[in-house]
Structure formats: structure tokens, C-alpha cells
Amino acid sequence: MARVAFEDVTKVYPGSVVAVQGLSLDVADGEFLILVGPSGCGKTSALRMVAGLERISDGTITIGDRVVNDVPPKDRDIAMVFQNYALYPHMTVEKNLAFGLRQRRTSRDDVRRRVGEVSRMLGLEELLQRRPGQLSGGQRQRVAMGRALVREPDVFLLDEPLSNLDAKLRVQMRSELKRLQDRLGVTTIYVTHDQVEAITLGERIAVLSDGVLQQVGRPQDVYDDPDNVFVASFIGSPPMNLLRGKVTSGRVIVGDLAFDHPQVPNGDVLVGIRPEGLRPVGWDHAGSGFELRVEVVEPLGDEVLVHGSVEARDADVRLGSEEATLLADTDSDRGTVTVRLPPEERPEAGSRLLVAPAPGAIRLFDATSGLAIRPA
Amino acid sequence: MSSIAVSTKTAPGPLDPRALAGETGMVERPRRRFLPFDPWHLFLAPLAAVMLLPLVWMVVTSLETLAQTRHFPPILWPGRLQFGNYAEAIHKSAFGTWFWNTTVVTVTIVVSNLIFCSLAAYAFARIRFLGRGVIYFVLLATLMVPLQVVLIPTFLIVKDLGLIDHLGALIVPNLVSVFGIFMLTQFFRTLPIELEEAARIDGASRLTILLRIVVPLSLPALATLAVIQFMWTWNDFLWPLVTILTNQNAFTLQLGLATFQGAHQTTWHLLAAANIMSMLPILVLFLAAQRFFVRGIATQGLKG
Known about the structure:
The structure holds two protein chains of two kinds. By secondary structure, chain A is an alpha+beta fold.
């Protein structure tokens, strides 16, 4: 067991490509931390630096009480599960599991005992004599987990371990993984680009973008109260609705909606509302919400996602190209609003809907910096 | 293609392509057949016959009398088969010595090439060091220098080493080959780097990674290199001709075979018999190593 601490860690690749910039992050002993971000955000580089597969350009990484910057991977007491599993194709499952122990000159009896334990834990007993090529995707995934577990490491590093599985298996392995981690209580750093996986699995999640840490916190906190526009637009499926608004002397005006927010300075703001934070209201409530022209209705069984564009009489609520660069998905059409509704309230495409934000559902962000504006 | 399919049907092993096909969901499409065999055979069979003709002729010649070999037009069926030619070829020459010499030289060179080329290739493929690109480039450039150009300089070096007229003259300059380094480097680069990273985390040293991970996954490439090197060395004539001057005890097969061809008379029947005997090891090697040529298992541990 050990804690892992990043202190001002920077990774620069040849050609001055900055993958990770000034990352400071503490992973407590036994914690399950998720590094999440879009591809190319530096999360895998961060993980590989912990593993020792990548040199640290600047800053320090500490595992337990030891700065490991110059410690080779084998002496760091870590185990890693690779995205493509990296099982040794020419060895049987048993030999794959035992390889790490053998390298550490573990006695034959100990190797047999621990391989036995792990294969029982993961249900691999039947597969011990097979080679990776003869296993299904889920079985390979389990062997890869087993190879990491068998060494009883201080820290577990997982690099998108579920991304090669089909959707159904992924959900199943996800819960299996969570159970396993709960039971073993090993410090785990888990990298994923899938924010759903991040929210469901982690005790804490750390959101990265362009090598810079955006926010760390409990999944629910990050979801409810994002630190900036990037996190707001990255976490959540569908992401938070973001509309452009204006503040004049303590009054926020966004399209047809206006409300008081005395602590906000004058200027442009971005107004964020989660899809479940919008509720349809009767037409007699005009002025308390937006008028939405329904464009697409997506029934999901337990809920309906309604995508529509805002009909604003006074001002354009669509984000400008400048503001759109702050978002996680810069290509998406930023004029639309998504509302999450119960199936029985399903509207017709082409109809009009008046939606109002639920109390406390509105988040404000600075239009230039993208940072959250929070009541003092 | 059809012959491969047939062979896997009779012996389904871990490399059975059908197992892999099932995994990726590929199904062999049943084809309508107008002939009981692949139409390509109509083209390939005559071609094979043309290729085989010289070999057949050699076999026939080796079973004829000297007089029959000189007959024109060539006699393609000698009537009585002169199996004694083989014994005569062995007894009238130092065939045993030649065969032994060639075996020693070839096996030494093949083994040392496998070792040294793997080591060098692994360094070029995976270890970052100053000047790696330049050294690799210079090495590759030497592949473009023809043998005739380096023949005399190499001869002088070998002479300075005092190896002329010894088997060492044949072995030392060929202990490692640039071609082998190049071939293995290219192959090692195709192996997934994650396997080696996983092994590093598992605690393996560079050498362990090379021996336990890289080499087992490179068996097809190593086998190919071994066969190519074996053939080159076994069949090499020019270099032994240049360096083995007078010492008949250091003659290789190819040098020895040339002695059947005299200035005044060539004993064609004995030459053919000796030729066939000298060819056998290569034939056996080819048949044995055939399965390695089909590239194997290197990527099976990764995602499908």
C-alpha cells in the first residue's frame, strides 16, 4: 500500500511537445483515482511516468515515501494493465501470470500458490494452459488483471483497460473491477477517456485537458459543480448545456430568461444548465424560461433526450467561436439545448416547448477565462 | 493457398487459421467450382515442371554411365540405373572431408549470426543511444557494396590474421551479417512495444526481455535468417576459392565439386551424384523450416 504524489510534474516529448504540464495531484493510500480526459490530454503520459516507462521532464513523483524519478519500473512496486493487455503471446496463461514472480526469484511453491489464488479469484482456473490467442477479449482482460494482481503491488496502474471490450462486457467488467478494488484496497490509478466509466468507477476523478489538470474531486461534485467550461462540457452525457448571457448590474440575462445574481460583475457570462436541470413549464410562465423548438427526440427507454434550439427574442444565446474553443468538443453545434425528460412527457419533433431551469440548477462561467463564477 | 488449407484441416493446432477466423467473425465464402482443382494450377503446374526439369536431369545424369551422359540427344531414361555412381563419387574424392568442412563452417556461421544479429538488431530496434541512426545507416550502406569490391581488402585482412588456407578464413568474416541485422531489426520493430514494457514492469532485464520475449516471438524471422544464411554459406563458391588455396583438407563441398570438372575431362555422372548429395541438407532444411515461414503468433496476445 502506498500513496502516490505528483508534484509539479511536467512531461515534454522531443520536439517540445508538452504532454503534461505542472501536474500536482495526491492519490491517497488505497484510493481509486481516475484520470479522465479526451485523447491526447496527457493522461496516459502521466500514468506511464508513474510506471517508469517515461522519463519525468520536471517535477517529482513520489510513491510511498520514496521519490521515484530515477527508480527503474521493476523497483517501483507497481503493476500495470495495458490497453491492449500486452499478454505474452507465446506463453500459456499460467506462465503469463507467473512471469513477473519468476523474474523476482519467488520460490516455486510461492509462485504456484499465488497463481492459484489469483486464477481462482478471477475465474481463470480452466484457462491456465491456454495461450492468449485462444482466449476471448474478456478472458484476456482478466488475465491481464491477474498478471497485475499476482505480484501484490503497492500501486495498480490501469491504462484504458476496458476500451477494447464490447459495450455489454465493458459494463460487466466495470462492476467486477470495482468490486475487486473495494476488496483489495490497493491504490489504483485508472486512465480512461470515457467519462461515464470515470463517474461510475472512481472515488475521485481528475479531469485533464491539454496536459493541464482541470479539476479533481468526487465524481458527483465534479458533475454538479464543474470548475470550468471544459469540465462542464466534458463530464456528463449529454454534457451541460451552455448558453451565452450578459450581466448588467447584478441581473443575468440569457435569451428570454432573466434572473438576479447580485455577486456577478458586469460583462459576458456563460450559463450552464444540466439537461436534467431543465423542466417544461406551462406557457403562462413566459419569461421564466426558454422557448425551445424541438428538433430531435431520442427515446432511451427510461428517459427521453430532447434536442432543440433556443428561440431568443432579445439576444443570441449561441456561443461565439472564441468561447467554443474553451469546450471539450469544439466541433459540436453550440446553439442547441438538450433536455432530459421522463418518457411520458415526450414531445413531438417540430413542436415548441417552454423550459425553465430548476432552482439551483444554473452554473455561471466567465466568458473569457471559462472559469466558474461561484457565489462568494 | 489451397495446399495450406488442406494441411491445416488434417492437423488443427494452436495456429489453426480457422480458430482465428472464428474469433474475428470471418467466414470463408464457399466458391463455385468448375474444376476439381484451382484454375491457377493450370498455369502453375507447367511452370513447376519447367523449374523441376534441371533437377530431374541431374538426378538422371547421376544414375547414368559416363558414356550415356555424353550422348546426344540426352538420354532421359538410362535403362540400368548406376547407383554405384554415388559410392564412386564418395570414394574417389574426399567427399566426407568436404561435407564435414562445409557443415562446420555453415553451422558456426548460422549460429553466430543468429546470436550476434539478434543482439545488434535489438539494440538498433529498441535501445536509444547516440549515433544510432547514423551507425544503422552506414551499416545498411555497406549492403550496397558489391562483393567484388571488398573481396581483396577482406582477403588482405584474413591474410593478416593468418587464416588463409584454414576454415577460419571462411568463418571469421561471416560471423555476423549486415543483412541479418537489417532483417531482424525490421522484424523486432514490428513487435508490440507494450510486451517489452510489461516485461520491464514485471522485472525483466534487457537480456531477459530479448531471450524470453523477443526471440520466442521472432522465431519465423530467425528461421528465415537461418535458412538464408545456411544457403548462402553452403553454396558459396567464390570466397572459399579465393581463400583456400592449397590445403585440400580445408576444401568445402563447392570447391570439391569443382574438382570433378577437369581441364581435359569432366566426370558428369560423378559430378551429378556428388551434387545431389551436397544438395540434400538444404532440401531437408527447407522442408523442416517451411512452417516457420508462415508468420506466426506474434500479435495474438494483443487485442483481436
